Amino acid sequence: MNKTAMLGGSFDPIHLGHLFLLHCAVSLSDYKKFIIVPAKQSNFKRTAGPAASDADRLEMIRLALEDYKDLYPEDSEAEIVVSDMEIKRGGISYTYDTVMEIRAKEGLEGRLGLVMGDDHVTKLDQWYRYSDLKDLVEFLICRRNPDGALWSTLPSDAKVFRLEPASVSPESATDIRENLRENEAFLSRRVLEYVRKHNLYS
User: Fold this and answer.
1) Residue ranges, the chain, pLDDT below 50
2) Mind listing the pLDDT tens digit for each residue in 72-94?
């Protein structure tokens, strides 16, 4: 059975940094199936929900994956799918719950890969049910910090696979939302067209 990984986030909007993160996991690991899971409500962003609707975020992810094929044609053998399980579940989106659901649906016996940028590792041990989560996943962590990865801040008990790309991609969804005009270059072609057409983030 092909090794399976998930990439979660608000994806508000999905941008080139997310696609690069996915590419790092596809090209630098031996995982073959990747599940993109947009959150309903991030546990670390409880004060405000996503600016774009669930339907808009799902459509932008679909469009971004079309752009991904153009940007990274060498990744064509990877299976990349989108799941709305956290949106359907509602409430706060906890990665532990999603990992358990994916394990059940995919019939996984080993660890699920959990793709993330190194900008998240400083709070990793604060995640919901981390003590249980760490035994269920392998953290696939990609360096995004241009000054060097934050490996020293990783919890010592986490199973980690380090993804070290030759370059980094530090795009920020917050920057895009707060100043779309100056950060349009962070969006892939089809996503930018959708954002403009639907007047998002303006």
Assistant:
1) none
2) 999 999 999 999 999 999 999 99
CA separation for the pair 55, 87 (Å, rounded)? 10
Packing angle of the helix pair 54-71, 16-28 (nearest 10 deg): 50
3-state helix, strand and coil shares in percent for the chain, rounded to the nearest 5: 45, 15, 40
**Which among 77, 78, 97, 126 is positioned nearest to 37, based on CA atoms?**
97
Q: Is 202 part of a structural domain of the chain? A: no
The distance in angstroms from the start CA to the end CA of the chain is: 44
- Residue recorded with tokens 């349009």: 184
Tell me, yes or no, whether 201 lies in a domain.
Answer: no
The contacts of residue 147 (CB under 8 Å, 6+ apart) are none
For residue 156, what are the domain limits? 4-196
